[in-house]
Amino acid sequence: MNVRFSSLLAFVGIFLFTSCNKEFSDVDASLLPTDTFVIEKQTALVGVQHERIEVIRTDDLSFLYLGQYQDPVFGTTTASVTTQLSLPLSSSGIFGLMSAENEEEGTSTDDTNINPHNEEETVKNVWLELPFYTNQRDSDGDGVIDIFDIDPDDKESDSDGDGLTDIQESMSVNFDPLKADTDGDGINDGEDTDTINPDADANNYEIEFLFGDSSQEVHFQVKELSYFLPLLDPDDNFQSIRSFYSNNDLEEEGFTSNILYDDKINLSFEELVFYNEDDPETEDVDESTLVGERLAPRVRIPLEPSYFQQKLFEREGESVLIDNNDFQEYFNGLVISIQNNTNPLLMQLNFVAGQIKIEYDFKKLVLIEDGDTANPSDYVVEDSSSTYTLGLSGVQFNSIAQDEPALEVQNALRGQDDDQYIYLKGGLGVVSYIDLFAGAEGQSQLTELQSNPWLINEANLTFYVDQQKVADLGLSELPSRLYLFDADESTPLEDYIIDGTSGSYPDQVKTTFGGLAQYNEAGEVISYKFVITDHLSKLIRQPDNYENIQLGLCVSSDYLNIQSTEVVQPELEVPQSAISSPLGVILAGPNHTNPDLRLQLEIFYTAYQ
């Protein structure tokens, strides 16, 4: 395009408004003409290479995979989790109220005398809890999270259709904005003059990072690990942290023993509500109607109570229940997997917040009213219950297996394609490497740009989705974000660093730099755009200090993670964003048959005449 202006004054105004590149503020005034300038656009050739990620370090990942993800192009992913367990902080090794020693010998002091008493601690239920990742995004602030809001941008919308707006109902304890008849008396909320919300504190959540069919029964398997996971590396004389990798599968190697669960579960995405026990001494109040605890949605897997009775409760008072190091050598940990379901399902669960809750009953001694603590006969036995909690912490890693991708992807990996497509897959998938100003023609163009004192207004790379190919191959879910980085150092580009855009939600972060999916009216992903103006400006204006580095391109989860992770096969580093999503996408390459979709570097600059 050619846009003419007649005065340098107009140039100064546009320069100050459009340029965020201080590299150009010191251009010598003698270089600037006094009459006209034009805003021009160039496109530059881009080259593409592909690399398959085969083995990665997985004990330092932000997200862990569990289950199976089936991809028609990139192959099936299968993942399990191995984790250590940890004792409660300041663990006393005591269950119930009395130590094992006091149960056996009693207590005798000047003011307290208790006969020997067996508390008979008995494990009733054991739950392995793995919280889902959730969000409660409420864009319009009307009290209804976006996923349930009929119009997430209008607080005056009426999601339950009862004639009252969402914000009206959320501001009152009497109404539920997602129930047209909150109290269930048959009268619509908009007409009911005498209603009350029976659970005004209830929460709704959107469940994130489930890939596949989550409505089916899910077959979980939990096994005891029979291999101690040392924190320090014995091969390095315990001088460094030991690393674990995606190809470390201890179950496959025979290092599991007891099966603690092997059955199917229907997943629940509702919050968990626990009520208090009724206190018989307060006859006028029924505490069992009062909520004691609310927990965000989670997977709850029932484990074998008799195993924990023998493994833990029969060891009461021993060092294995007091010292965490002793405990982890005694109870090595768990291997958690999902067996073959009817339909594939891959989940990313919050294993860091995971825990094992052991519910048990016991017989406690209680001093009678006005009883004498020094008189053993003034104590009576009462039934009681409690919960003992183990954490999922310490060494924790993913075992991941990835099938071979389709032949066309293999050809791209071997460089035997024609750069018509760019293939990207998260996890043990595919990253691509972008060469700006590719080939002799591209290098000549770069030299020309470096030789002219032009102002770079914007430089961008737009990656278009080949929607027809994606549809034909059955890629039903595409990533909501890609990430572009310095491939030489596996670090962020300068444009990422200087981008100060932020917000409460992932799609509000680094929006100027970009990489977010762009959608058409049908809700289909059509492109991903990155603005790399600062990167290109430095390359052009400071060629002695900045090389034309390769750019890495990868799939990302919504949450950008620029921390590097180690890839063993091949030997390189990639940002964790390249690992944190299992999704794949096919983009139009620089030689795509449709010229409107071809990948090009677009450069908008001001030239002087």
Describe the structure.
- The chain is mostly beta strands.
- It has ten helices and 32 strands.
- The strands form nine sheets. Strands 4, 5, 11, 12, 13, 17, 18 and 21 form an eight-stranded antiparallel sheet that branches.
- A hairpin with a 2-residue loop joins strand 29 (564-569) and strand 30 (572-575).
- The longest helix is centred in the C-terminal third of the chain and has 13 residues, at 439-451.
- The chain starts with 7 loop residues before the first helix and ends with a strand.
Question: What characteristics describe this protein?
Answer:
single chain, 609 residues, mainly beta, 8-stranded antiparallel β-sheet, 5-stranded antiparallel β-sheet, 10 helices
Q: What is the strand tally?
A: 32
Largest sheet: 8 strands, antiparallel
Q: What gyration radius follows from the Cα positions, in whole Å?
A: 31 Å
Instruction: Characterize the overall form.
Output: globular
What number is the mean pLDDT? 90
SS content category? mainly beta
How far apart the termini lie comes to 15 Å
Helix content: 10-25%
Helix tally?
A: 10
What portion of residues belong to β-strands?
25-35%
Unreliable stretches (pLDDT < 50, length at least 5) are 1-30
Compose a concise summary of this entry:
This protein is mainly β and 609 residues long. The chain is built from ten helices and 32 strands.
